[in-house]
Design goal:
Elements: E1 3-6, H1 8-14, H2 17-33, E2 36-37, E3 42-46, E4 51-61, E5 66-75, H3 79-83, E6 90-95, E7 102-107, H4 108-127, E8 134-138, H5 142-154, E9 159-163, H6 167-177, E10 182-185, H7 188-192, E11 196-199, E12 218-221, H8 234-239, E13 241-244, H9 247-253, H10 257-261, E14 272-273, H11 274-278, E15 292-295, H12 300-317, E16 321-323
Parallel strand pairs: 1-7, 8-9, 8-11, 9-10, 11-12, 12-15, 13-14, 13-15
Antiparallel strand pairs: 1-16, 2-4, 3-4, 4-5, 5-6, 6-7
Amino acid sequence: METLLLNRDAVDANTQMAEVIRAVEDAFAAYARGDAQMPAKSYIDLPQYNGDFRSMPAYLEADDWDAAGIKWVNVHPDNPESFDLPTVMGTMVYSNPENAFPLAIMDGTELTMKRTGAAAAVATDHLAVEDATTMGVIGAGVQSYTQLEAISEVRPIEEVVVSDLDEERVADFIEYFEDDFEVRAGSIAEAAQCDVLSTVTPVEDPIVSREDIGDHTHVNAMGADAEGKHELADEILLDAKLVIDDHAQTTHSGEINVPYHEGVLTDDDIYGEVGDIVVGDLEGRTSEDGITVFDSTGLAIQDVAAAHVVYEHADDNDNGYPFDLIGTGTQ
């Protein structure tokens, strides 16, 4: 048996977004049913290098497949300037849960972008208005691209408003998507009036006010992934049907972490977890709902689900590099 090495291009080629969305939805369902194991994300803090490592292991059992893996990921903000490297890099080890053989080692950076977009799409499918045709994007970095790619799989998006302080990023985003959507630059308020809004910024002081948000907008709050980060005004969270991916992670480092620890927002203000909606234990959007918010921190089960899709398509697409990592002998 050989282990498959899959670089960023191979991961991209093997992640058909519609299939990743289905796999991530399966993962949320497995977690809600108790058919997943996901130890808490662990951190190695390296202040001497202005960075950290994070390990994210998980196992999940879906209806007709199961999978296991671990993602090793960093955040080093000085990397681009000091080393000409990305701020965030990830490596995914994907294993056979039956015998623990490492089936693949793959780029986790592209994988993370794909599964993050897919998670937003799952939430959007259950929480946005059915006829959503407009989408706002606040933050035009790398994560913004898969937000639009994924959400347009579940809603008939036609018009897109993108807002970012970096005009070059906005121009790049528009150029990338202009053949497929009516996409333009706009203010935060203009983006927030759309049927669906994805926020993908690293800010610690909210940039979206209650007055900005449309009456029936669904918001995917994707940017907060550490203590102190906070994109949406507290009033939005308090007025919305608030759905989270995982209680422990969102209260620690999600969009709700600041108002939760300040006592502004409590468990009574949280409608439930997205997995409970997926399995039907809770309702998604109803006719009575106005604003809905999905607080996404990113779960290891999503990485494993996306890695499952990548690996299953690797042979079909004949990409990747097989190599003998373990050897065939037994000990």
